[in-house]
Design goal:
Length: 350
């Protein structure tokens, strides 16, 4: 009997040694400050609060080619393969295999209407899973990725500090990258500084702002906000803006809702950092801001699905003069946030 209990005690000790290390250290809450004129409501989920350790882990994963789970990374091996900081975390060029131009990863902590051009992905955590496993993106295997990260020298400790357990799960990979992406806040462009009373706009920039926020002018503000009313520079809603009048794209908003009125509808992207986030439109058909302004000025097409906010569709657009186009572009250039696209906290870790 004595030997039996001795054997049982040794077995308990061995099983205890096999358990993943638990962490009594509590992650440090991340101080998430809401900028002036931004909405108070965010999409930060209760089951994935932002922490300093979680954001830093997500940053490392965002840039790490090991995210692909392959010893020899392919052309697209991590999030940063397609989302470049200098382009407001957009690709900066068309991604042919992805069917659409990329959307910038900026101020997504305030997005509550679904992600992507058609809103088919509900959360940033889901977006990480979709991007990692999609054949036309990273094309990784989650089990292989977890095994690869688990065998590394650094990641078990980093996951321990961020999530209290050194046993890596892909769910925590999703959580960490989502935390980092939510930390990507752009709120210090020249226009932001103007709204805060810290600088003045030039006359052309100011005239362009007036055009931006008036229906008689460029009529942009209904879909892209107006600054003090919506500093995100997007409503995050979906519109048919008159790019086409026949629709055969299987990735538009209709593919999500199955409502015929949603054919040819796509999310209105933020105009923040628009000068550095070409190409433009869901399919990347425009390479310059000038082409976009020309389109809205005189090339808008009518269809039954056209947004009722496109007030000038029957005359082909807003019919701006060349001077007004110059002024509107001058205003759009004030939306570039140099601090954001050069912030070392968002860059690839050393």
């Amino acid at each position: 009997m004595k030997n039996k209990w001795l054997f049982f005690g040794i077995l308990v000790l061995l099983l205890g040694a096999c358990k993943p290390e638990q962490n009594e250290y509590k992650p440090t809450p991340y101080e998430f400050n809401i900028p002036l004129f931004f909405p108070n409501q965010t999409s930060i989920p209760a089951d994935n609060p932002m922490t300093i350790e979680g954001v830093e882990l997500g940053r490392k994963l965002f840039y790490d080619p090991r995210l692909s789970g392959r010893e020899i990374p392919g052309e697209i091996s991590n999030c940063a393969s397609c989302h470049h900081q200098e382009n407001s975390f957009e690709a900066g060029h068309p991604i042919a295999e992805a069917h659409h131009a990329m959307l910038p990863l900026v101020n997504l902590a305030w997005n509550t209407t679904g992600l992507g051009w058609n809103g088919s992905v509900n959360t940033l955590e889901d977006m990480v899973l979709a991007a990692v496993t999609a054949e036309n993106e990273i094309n990784g295997d989650t089990t292989q990725i977890v095994n690869y990260l688990q065998a590394s020298d650094d990641y078990p400790t980093l996951f321990l500090k961020a999530f209290g357990n050194n046993r890596i799960t892909f769910k925590n990979v999703q959580r960490a990258i989502a935390q980092f992406v939510r930390s990507l806040v752009s709120a210090n462009s020249k226009f932001d500084q103007y709204l805060r009373g810290e600088t003045q706009l030039s006359q052309d920039e100011l005239n362009g702002y007036v055009l931006f926020v008036t229906e008689e002018g460029a009529d942009c503000f209904h879909c892209h906000g107006s600054g003090t009313g919506n500093a995100l520079m997007t409503t995050n809603l979906f519109y048919c803006n008159g790019l086409d009048n026949t629709f055969n794209d299987q990735y538009d908003r209709y593919s999500v809702t199955l409502k015929s009125i949603d054919r040819g509808n796509y999310k209105a992207p933020t105009l923040r950092n628009i000068a550095v986030s070409a190409p433009y439109m869901h399919d990347g058909r425009f390479q310059t801001i000038d082409q976009v302004i020309d389109f809205y000025s005189d090339s808008v097409k009518y269809s039954e699905q056209i947004s009722p906010l496109m007030h000038h569709v029957m005359q082909g657009g807003v019919r701006l003069t060349e001077e007004e186009k110059t002024q509107l572009k001058a205003f759009l250039n004030t939306l570039t946030d140099e601090d954001f696209i050069n912030n070392p906290n968002y860059a690839k870790p050393e």
